[in-house]
Amino acid sequence: MLLRLIVLLIFMSPVVLATLWFSDNAGTVQVEWLGWHVDTNIPVLLGILLAVFMLFSGLTRLSALVADLPAKLGKSRQARGREKGMLALLAALDAAESGDVGDGRRLGAEAARLLDSPELAARLDRLIPRPAAPPAATLRPEPAKGRLFAKKPPAPPVVEREPPPPVKAAPPPAPVAVVETPGAPADPSAEDAAAFAAKLRDGEWAAAQACIDATLSAGRLSPALAARWRAVVLQGQACLDSQDDPARSLRLAREALAADPGFLPAALHVLRQEVSEGRRSEAEAVLAAVWRSAPARILLETCAPLWREDDAESRLKRLEALAEWAPHDPEGHLAAGEAAVAAAKWGVARRHLMAALKIAPDALGCRLMAEIEDKEPGGAERAEIWRRREREAAAAPTWVCEACGATSGSWAPYCSACGAGAAIQWTRPAHKPENPPTPASVPPSAEAPPAPAEPRVSRIQAESKIEKL
């Protein structure tokens, strides 16, 4: 304390001495400006200058503080969000460790939302298992009550209405079949495929499961194809029960997805249910798990209502993450390119669209490239080239029968045209529609390929090289 007082006296002594000296030698100062005449002395003039300097310094600091206020508030809000997300993540891990799976999944979804990380949601979905589904007898109980219900054992009639025991006992024979018959054929015989398809057409789901078990045990069916057939049987039942018993339908779809994680119809069934009930975190977790093995544009169209309120930047960020998870598939790059066009990120859109078109030509990619070229000066000729390539590109993916090539508007366990079972896949049809749409501005004669085709090809190659540079 004494040291501070001494330092203060040392600094104040020159000020006091200067004040005393100016009081004895005040002098006079005359200021004449624009007809004004001011008479004052040196101490007053110095005091006025000091006050003006302090006022200017205070205004400068205040303006800098006001300019930095939004950035500081934004950083503070982000820090609070991250802190809440980490606390929710720790609470989710503690709940999962203590066995409370329901709270663990709920807190994990909240942590993924606060931290804005779909990948975290997918990992937590794998780490924290779903709560065990109630047994079939509890889902569809008998109306009996009281002592009559207590006397009865677990009701056999209810179990008979559920998928028969072969559905639950199906996984154990699979490893046995691999050990005993390591050389199982990749494709089943025509007789086995026809028998399985007949069971599907007749709606004999238990018999279809038994057919799978018998064919797999005999070594005439590979484990991977057996898993796909089981998923087809479960999803077929789920489609039939979707109106009468939605809970059982959703459970069967989840079982089908567990049997074959890349089975697109089951994934779409689960996603539609999650989206309709507004469970965003669960839907994004299912999408992240399925996208790595079966990326398809229809998955994004199903999840689109969840992201309707997001801005263009957020959608682009999410779709770019999906493109990184499946970099060798064009669907993720096409979706990211379309989102980049919507966000007016032309460089990002061009990069993703060119990556998709190098993997597989697509009409959507060509149309988006034409839109980008239209935005640039002098790009009308290049845009017309891309529109021509759009008309020549393959048709968009749809449900196609691998046996006969027939297309369908929705998935079914068997083809309605040829009757083949487990043959409908989401892919591009072999042929484009008979009457593809053409722009009204292009005359019919322009549809014929021009005679000097070689310069057009070299122009496209030159443009690709320019894009790489």
Automatic annotation (TrEMBL):
It is found in: Membrane. The chain crosses the membrane at residues 42-67. InterPro entries: HemY_N, Mms48. Keywords: Membrane, Transmembrane, Transmembrane helix. It comes from the Bacteria. It holds the Pfam family HemY_N. Residues 146-174, 428-469 are annotated as: Disordered. GO terms for cellular component: membrane. Residues 27-122 form the HemY N-terminal domain. Residues 164-174, 435-453 have a biased composition (Pro residues). This is HemY N-terminal domain-containing protein. It comes from Paramagnetospirillum marisnigri.
